[in-house]
Design goal:
This protein is of the alpha/beta class and about 300 residues long. It has helices spanning about 15, 55-65, 90-100, 135-140, 145-155, 175-185, 195-205, 220, 270-275, 280-285, 290-300; strands spanning about 20-25, 75, 100-105, 120-130, 165, 190, 235-240, 245, 260. It is about 30% helix and about 15% strand. Helix 2 runs parallel beside helix 3 (about 90-100).
Length: about 300
């Protein structure tokens, strides 16, 4: 999974907040990424589900009826889960099309869904842990050839400018970057950062140093001045499959302040005010995690030039 944000000054604008909404339609994922709270099992005891189509329809109506959305809003159908696992995926997409809402998708590529290109399809991301079965065995534990085959099938139907290869960089897969760049040279390509909150806190506190993480830039990031206001909560809103509004995209369900309340009980003002009061935000900022998440991508971009 990869999140890209633009830093803004501390002056809230509700239209900016609602330009990007991450709506989790699947609480489940079939990948086993050890640096993801879903893949590594740390949320196994938390409630999960596929959002029922009726609940999703009601949520979209609420967002529209209460002016959460504007003409530029994109609803991305994922956070920690794999959206293509949803048994009624096509119906979910149809709800967005019926409401003329732009939407984005991110998938590990292991499952194929017949997507139809429309002006409302904003982007389709494929998250890869490398470009070989060996690399997939270390992280996703999915079949590499199936993933590549599914990407190629999508490329025959979806314009290439809407497709994004999100390549998670590790020391063991750096040598494979040129291979994947060569194969997918006509589509978007980026190298994201590592973003599980629980592990990130341990890592920044010095209690976790995984051998296979790409971390040689952390000393420089730690020297940066902390953000006054975290861009992760001022440029996007996240809703889970139970229609709870989350504190931010990085908090897993086993964190005490994971959500700030149910969408149907909140106004835009409520969402803004409650998110600024979260104790996890105080700790996160004290460890300079926002800069770690936001600036890591700047560090690894040299590998795709």
């Amino acid at each position: 999974m990869m999140f890209m944000f633009t830093t803004i000054k501390y002056k809230f604008n509700y239209n900016i907040i609602m330009n990007t909404i991450y709506f989790e339609i699947s609480g489940y994922c079939n990948a086993k990424c050890k640096y993801c709270c879903n893949g590594n099992g740390s949320m196994n005891d938390c409630d999960k589900r596929f959002i029922p189509v009726d609940d999703f329809t009601t949520a979209i109506a609420y967002l529209k009826g209460n002016e959460f959305l504007n003409d530029d809003t994109v609803i991305h159908l994922y956070n920690w889960g794999e959206p293509f696992l949803h048994p009624q995926f096509d119906d979910i997409i149809q709800v967005l099309i019926n409401n003329a809402i732009k939407h984005g998708l991110s998938t590990n590529g292991s499952i194929y869904k017949e997507l139809i290109d429309t002006p409302l399809l904003h982007e389709l991301k494929f998250s890869l842990p490398g470009y070989s079965q060996e690399s997939h065995n270390k992280i996703h534990k999915l079949d590499f050839q199936t993933v590549i085959s599914n990407i190629d099938r999508h490329m025959t139907l979806i314009p290439h400018h809407k497709i994004n290869i999100t390549y998670f960089i590790y020391p063991f897969n750096i040598h494979e970057i040129e291979l994947i760049k060569s194969k997918y040279q006509h589509i978007n390509f980026n190298l994201p950062y590592y973003n599980d909150y629980n592990s990130s806190v341990k890592f920044m506190e010095g209690n976790l140093m995984p051998w296979d993480m790409f971390v040689d830039h952390v000393r420089e990031i730690n020297k940066m001045a902390p953000n006054d206001i975290c861009p992760l909560i001022t440029t996007s809103t996240v809703i889970d499959e139970y229609c709870n509004v989350l504190q931010c995209c990085g908090l897993p369900k086993n964190i005490r302040h994971y959500n700030i309340g149910n969408l149907f009980d909140l106004t835009i003002n409520d969402i803004q005010d409650r998110r600024l009061e979260c104790q996890e935000c105080i700790k996160c900022k004290s460890l300079n995690l926002p800069n770690y998440w936001l600036k890591s991508n700047d560090h690894v971009v040299k590998f795709i030039k």
